[in-house]
Amino acid sequence: MIRVLVADDEPLIRAGIRMILTSADDIDVVAEARDGREAVETARSTAVDVALLDIQMPELDGLTALAEIGRVAPRVRVLILTTFGERENVLRALGHGGAGFLLKDSAPQELIHAVRAAAAGDAYLSPAATRHVVDTLASPAATARGEEARRRLSALTERELRVLALLGEGLSNADAGARLHMSEATVKTYVSRILTKLDCDNRVQAALLARDAGLEPAGG
């Protein structure tokens, strides 16, 4: 079972999220939090696989709580859930090591998929959040980021670059393995090496580097 913490200051929102997630036979909502501080303490003291955090909460906002959870409970994968899709929030969430970002108007099945992806070590960005990231990558500041990203990617082997390109497309380990004719375990090993070489905390950060560098997937 995937053990989930839901943090939102609105009881009705928490109840709705719980109802959606527990409709899946492999997900169990084991804890709830009413504010960011409580979310951090619960993530630290409770056996949780995935924490689903609202951005706007009292005590600590969701992005600050995300950073704190990364410090005190690094085993917990954090998804940010919000009604706001501002580009800065998406990038801050990813920069703090978040496993994904989706909006509260996402379809129930999308929420379940995001939790499963996070628990599996994959990243999830809702289509709306992805558009914000792509818009940012197309901005004038992208030129400097692209140069820095290409410099960092120069440390990778050709095979690692091919795996990274597929991460940039949002593929899971299993899907990347099928595309490259590798086992899922082999892809996982490559991803671990890539994160180490690029000094990235998670695959979302690595995927953004791939996008910054203009890395395109090649054939298998």
Automatic annotation (TrEMBL):
Protein name stated in the entry: Response regulator transcription factor
Species whose genome carries this gene: Streptomyces prasinosporus
Transmembrane segments annotated in the record for this chain: none
Highest taxon listed in the record's lineage: Bacteria
Domain HTH luxR-type span(s) in chain numbering: 149-214
Pfam families given in the database record: GerE, Response_reg
Positions carrying 4-aspartylphosphate: D54
Domain Response regulatory: residue ranges: 3-119
InterPro entries given in the database record: CheY-like_superfamily, NreC/VraR/RcsB-like_REC, Sig_transdc_resp-reg_C-effctor, Sig_transdc_resp-reg_receiver, Tscrpt_reg_LuxR_C, WalR-like
Keywords, alphabetical: DNA-binding, Phosphoprotein, Transcription, Transcription regulation
Lineage: Bacteria, Bacillati, Actinomycetota, Actinomycetes, Kitasatosporales
SMART domains the UniProt entry points to: HTH_LUXR, REC
